[in-house]
Design a protein that fits this description.
The complex is a heterodimer of chains A (419) and B (479). Chain A has 419 residues and is an all-alpha fold. Chain A has one domain (1-419). Chain A is built from 18 helices and two strands. Chain A starts with a helix and ends in a 12-residue tail after the last helix. The model of chain B has no long low-confidence stretch (mean pLDDT 90). Chain B has one domain (3-473). A two-stranded antiparallel ribbon of chain B has the order 1-2. Chain B contains 18 helices and two strands. In chain B, 46% of the residues are buried. The two termini of chain B are 33 Å apart. Chain B is elongated and about 105 Å long. The interface between A and B is large, with 101 and 103 residues. Chain A: The chain crosses the membrane at residues 132-151, 182-199, 205-228, 240-261. Chain A: InterPro entries: DUF3526.
């Protein structure tokens, strides 16, 4: 214990070390604050939905009530969906800045709606977010380099290297020094994080998992520093080669891999889905309406006993061809999604050999801000959309009037179970 | 041969003998070549794909059968954003903005299917482009090669020897500057050659390319000068290296991320849901087209009747439903213009905040310059969005006018068995509609957009050169 305190005093005399640790703590705190502020903004935007929605749907209900027409209600009512941030989202914002977390949908063709995005500034999204994951993945290794590049070479250059190695407790000395530096770096990252995570109500298991990831990532970089240290180069050569390693592992290989993954796993552009769906939907106006209904009833026999169409426009035909349109591109949607999932899997697979990517993948998974979380949100939207259709069809296909009170009976997204 | 040239040659010889330096430089050149090749192939692929899709969408539009014009308003059209040749050098926001847009009546859709939502998590680590290599990687290489240029001489005592032999401080620093500058040129060369190749592409513009080339060369010269400045002022070469790497990490990696985050917190954007609800609210305030007794639409109807001197819409020489359609589109589009205008203004304010931070980080300034000259910044995307909206409005109003003039009111309101047939207009009309063609920014406009960034990078270089001159005068003094 005494020895450890002594080492700590030695460390405290190094201006570089003290400065680096203080800076890392500041950056961690700033990144956590930025992440928490962003998540708070997203929560506020979600909390603001009911008021806006009540106003919007109230106005629709007011004029539809005169006609009591379920078709107009289905056509003009937008229903909000949202993807609330998970407690850990503040630490790794992942895709939440470029994928929508609020989307309003109607009971019409879903494929024309589900790929829509929200408003964001692309120039701000381009460099990536400043969050805890960034501090850990990109910056923490630089601090490891600053603290470890001269761990042994520094003593050697000061002429104490041989003497220290000749001492009886030499191994323990290096372990003590390594452990102390590791503990300080870990504390600079982990203490602010833990406080923030507790404030945000993250489960203890998740906090522990993140702390383990932090520790493992730091250990990886310390191991790299130790490996390069064994070459017995000068401090400055150590620093240069460590920084070069960092550049390659954190910046260059991931970007190269991105090019490789996208080239190896081509996906058809999603625009094809949108265009095919629109052709299918609009064709309905040019073919006999009975054909549309036959096809719809064949897939959805539960509505087949509905009254036959008259010469006038009927919304059940309109909604039926929208659903036919969705179903005609279901195969394309599956292929597109499978392609995206393959790309995502390839990216994450790289994480097994590239710690920088692995840590990013793990953190965004724990924070539910990764691609899988986006897909899960899409699945919930699809489930909700099915409910919406069933809800309106029960009026349309049975020719029941849709009164003001019926608007309140519409399914709510909050009731859809989490995928 | 002057002393400065001799020193430069000596320094270069030393670098050539340094195996690590040679390997690092070779790797950088290779990386640049890979970046150029993949980025160019990627850009060509995208350009071809979008052109094919655009042609397909145009063909589909023209191949429509006889249709009621309002059907075509909702059939809409797809447009794809074309890329300029310089996008292969710096694709900017292209991956982050959707590249296709569905245009239809009464709605303003978002641009969808951007690469960022179609790629793995790796895309957020950055994109391997020539711009990325020169902005981020090249300075670090120069740091590795140059941190010791002066600090090493001082550390080993050779600085004093050189000065005793009568080498002036200016020629010493000048020589080192020359040597490291030559390395910087080598590092930039592959990108510059690719640049010349891109200049041969159709649509390549000389002025923005010139500004980009000057910008990048100034940026590399700036880093060369910064490296020598730190190497001249710091006592030990290890301190020089650490200080330079820290400086690089802050200006090239940290600030470009922190500043946009601060900007987006400082200027919030209204999300789509709130915008849509607000537009619907404003529309209701103007008038409710569903309500036959609504004052706005009653007055509008009266004005139309008065204009034609009739008392009933049935007596109008035009189809009143088409006329109302035009009025409705005019109202919704003016509201779209107002709300997107507000959103663009907010985004411009955010970007102005980030650009101002070019004072803190030359990398931010260079990035702004580079994207602006390539036409791949937000302004370039907005140019596409503005033209898309103008095209959408013109198309929808043409179709509404067609409904007013070519479909009779009696047919349009009839519900008998043959009515559907009578409501349709001939399919020959669809090919007469003009296709969307993107009007690219002129070279002068692109270059003008890049000027603020260029001014900042040049300002940085000037400032650092002054500091370097001051440091040179005190080089080798006892402290």
């Amino acid at each position: 214990m005494n020895l450890l305190r002594h080492e700590l005093r030695l460390l405290a005399r190094q201006r570089l070390t003290v400065f680096a640790l203080a800076l890392l703590t500041c950056l961690t705190v700033a990144a956590l604050a930025a992440g928490m502020a962003e998540v708070a903004r997203q929560r506020a935007a979600i909390a603001a939905i009911p008021a806006a929605q009540a106003e919007d749907i109230g106005a629709v209900a007011a004029w539809i009530d005169a006609k009591k027409d379920a078709g107009s209600a289905a056509y003009y009512s937008f229903h909000p969906t949202w993807d609330a941030p998970a407690p850990l989202a503040f630490a790794a914002l992942g895709m939440r800045d470029v994928s929508p977390y609020i989307l309003r949908i109607r009971a019409l063709g879903l494929e024309a709606q589900i790929w829509d995005g929200d408003t964001f500034n692309p120039e701000l999204a381009l460099p990536g977010r400043f969050d805890f994951a960034f501090v850990l993945v990109f910056l923490a290794p630089l601090f490891v380099i600053a603290l470890f590049h001269d761990l042994r070479s520094g003593e050697r250059e000061a002429g104490r290297g041989r003497m220290l190695d000749a001492l009886p407790g030499a191994l323990a000395l290096w372990r003590r020094r390594t452990g102390l530096r590791l503990a300080l770096l870990f504390a600079a990252l982990a203490l602010p994080f833990t406080v923030a995570a507790v404030v945000e109500g993250v489960a203890w298991g998740t906090i522990l998992a993140v702390l383990l990831v932090v520790m493992a990532y730091l250990l990886f970089w310390i191991a790299v520093a130790a490996l390069i240290g064994r070459l017995r180069w000068s401090s400055v050569a150590n620093a240069a080669s460590l920084a070069a390693t960092w550049l390659v592992l954190v910046l260059i290989v991931p970007t190269l891999a991105n090019v490789a993954v996208n080239a190896a796993l081509p996906v058809n552009q999603g625009a094809e889905i949108a265009m095919a769906q629109r052709e299918a939907v609009n064709r309905a106006w040019d073919i006999p309406r009975e054909e549309t209904m036959r096809r719809f009833y064949a897939r959805h026999p539960e509505w087949a006993d509905s009254a036959p169409l008259g010469p006038a426009f009927h919304y059940k035909w309109y909604l039926a061809f929208h659903q036919n349109g969705d179903e005609s591109v279901a195969g394309r949607v599956r292929t597109y999604r499978a392609g995206l999932e393959q790309r995502d899997a390839a990216g994450r697979a790289l994480g097994w050999v590239l710690p920088s990517v692995g840590v990013q993948a793990l953190l965004t998974r724990l924070a539910r801000t990764d691609f899988a979380a986006q897909l899960a949100y899409q699945d919930r939207i699809r489930a909700f959309h099915r409910r919406l259709r069933t809800f309106y069809y029960a009026y349309l296909f049975r020719d029941r009037p849709f009164a003001k009170a019926d608007f309140a009976r519409a399914p709510r997204f909050g009731d859809v179970p989490n995928g | 041969m002057s002393a400065a040239t001799l020193i430069a040659r000596d320094e270069l010889r030393l670098l050539r003998r340094n195996r690590v330096a040679v390997i690092a430089t070779t790797l950088l050149v290779l990386l640049t070549l890979v970046a150029v090749a993949t980025s160019w192939a990627h850009q060509r692929g995208i350009a071809d794909l979008r052109m094919r899709y655009q042609q397909g969408a145009d063909r589909a539009f023209e191949a429509q059968p006889d249709r009621h014009p309002h059907r075509v308003v909702h059939y809409g059209t797809f447009i794809f954003r074309p890329l300029g040749p310089l996008a292969a050098f710096d694709p900017g926001v292209d991956a982050f903005t959707g590249n296709s847009m569905f245009l239809e009546g009464h709605r303003q859709n978002s641009a969808n299917f951007g690469d960022v939502r179609q790629s793995s998590l790796l895309v957020r680590f950055g994109q391997l482009t020539p711009a990325f290599v020169l902005q981020i990687v090249a300075p670090l290489l120069l740091i590795f090669l140059g941190y010791g240029a002066l600090a090493r001489e001082r550390e080993r005592g050779t600085l004093r020897l050189l000065m005793l032999q009568g080498v002036s401080r200016r020629s010493l620093v000048g020589g080192k500057l020359l040597a490291l500058g030559a390395v910087a040129l080598v590092a930039a060369l592959p990108a510059l050659i690719a640049f010349v190749a891109m200049a041969g592409q159709p649509g390549a513009l000389a002025l923005p390319m010139l500004v980009t080339a000057i910008g990048y060369l100034t940026y590399l010269a700036l880093w060369t000068a910064v490296i020598l400045l730190v190497s001249a002022t710091v006592r030990r070469s290890r301190d020089a290296l650490l200080a330079l790497v820290a400086l690089w990490a802050v200006t090239a990696v940290l600030l470009p991320r922190v500043v946009p985050d601060m900007a987006s917190a400082a200027v919030p954007l209204r999300n789509r849901l709130q915008t849509d609800v607000a537009i619907a609210r404003d529309l209701r305030r103007i008038g409710d087209s569903h309500n036959p007794a609504d004052p706005h639409f009653a007055a509008f109807k009266q004005s139309v009747l008065d204009r034609y001197g009739v008392t009933r819409v049935e007596d109008l020489p035009v189809n009143y439903k088409g006329v109302v359609g035009m009025e409705g589109e005019r109202l919704t589009s003016s509201l779209f213009a107002r709300y997107t205008g507000e959103s663009y203004a907010a985004q411009d304010r955010q970007i102005a905040l980030v650009d101002a931070a070019g004072v803190l980080s030359p990398t931010i300034a260079l990035r702004a310059l580079s994207m602006a000259a390539a036409g791949t910044d937000f302004a370039g995307h907005r140019r596409f969005l503005d033209q898309a909206e103008a095209y959408r409005y013109a198309l929808v109003q043409r179709l509404n006018r067609m409904q007013a003039e070519d479909v009779s009111y009696a047919d349009d309101t009839a519900e008998d068995v043959g009515a559907d047939r009578r409501k349709r207009v001939s399919a020959t009309n669809w090919s007469a509609m003009p296709d969307f063609s993107f009007d690219r920014a002129s070279g002068t406009d692109l270059a003008r957009g890049a000027l603020p960034g260029l001014a900042m990078v040049v300002g940085w270089l000037g400032g650092v050169l002054v500091l370097l001159a001051l440091a040179t005068r005190r080089l080798g003094e006892r402290r």
